[in-house]
Write a structure and sequence with these properties.
Layout: E1 3-5, E2 13-16, E3 21-28, H1 33-47, E4 54-64, H2 66-84, E5 88-96, H3 100-111, E6 117-122, H4 126-129, E7 131-136, E8 142-146, H5 147-155, E9 162-167
Parallel strand pairs: 3-4, 4-5, 5-6
Antiparallel strand pairs: 1-2, 2-3, 7-8, 7-9
């Protein structure tokens, strides 16, 4: 039996099927990473014992915390083990254009496995690429960020911590 988890503000959509298609998409910032990720690791450990003819994992993360990254690393190690046992494994790492942190996470994970990642840059809406200058109300520090990042700040409930100084 596969795993299907609906996307929430804190957890990504997950669809792991026994036919070899594994999908993860969204944000992973849950406080209880063990309860979310460990069942996926357990499922994958069983899956790689008798995998489909071809396994394809597609990861498209918007944001992830360091605790989730640990589980992603474990997942990639299991997929690497599956491939080293002679099975066909494909890893597609999707990221939004200009999202260097998610791209770098994929590159870091890629360097730890023998399975080559396919990196797929996804074009974003032009509005999301617009830049703004924000000032921290607490420290007074300023930064130039994209509207995509600003939207993430708002979704995380931190909009009141910053002031938009200028639209660029």
């Amino acid at each position: 039996m596969g795993i299907l988890i609906d996307k929430t503000p804190d957890c990504p959509y997950v669809n792991f099927s026994e036919n070899g298609i594994l999908e993860i998409e969204g944000r992973s910032i849950t406080e209880d990473v063990y309860s979310f990720w460990q069942p996926l690791i357990d499922w994958l450990e069983q899956y790689i014992k008798a995998p489909a003819l071809h396994t394809k994992i597609v990861v498209f993360l918007e944001y992830t915390n360091s605790s989730s990254n640990k589980y992603l690393n474990e997942m990639m190690k299991l997929l690497d083990l599956c491939a080293s046992n002679g099975n066909s494994v494909e890893i597609v790492w999707r990221y939004e254009e200009d999202d260097e942190s998610i791209l770098m996470l994929g590159q870091d994970l890629d360097s730890l496995t023998s399975v080559s990642f396919h990196f797929d840059e996804v074009a974003m809406e032009r509005h999301n690429l617009k830049k703004i200058r924000v000032r921290s109300r607490k420290s007074g520090n300023e930064a130039i960020i994209t509207m995509r990042y600003w939207d993430a700040i708002l979704r995380n409930g931190h909009g009141d911590d910053y002031l938009i100084v200028e639209e660029l």
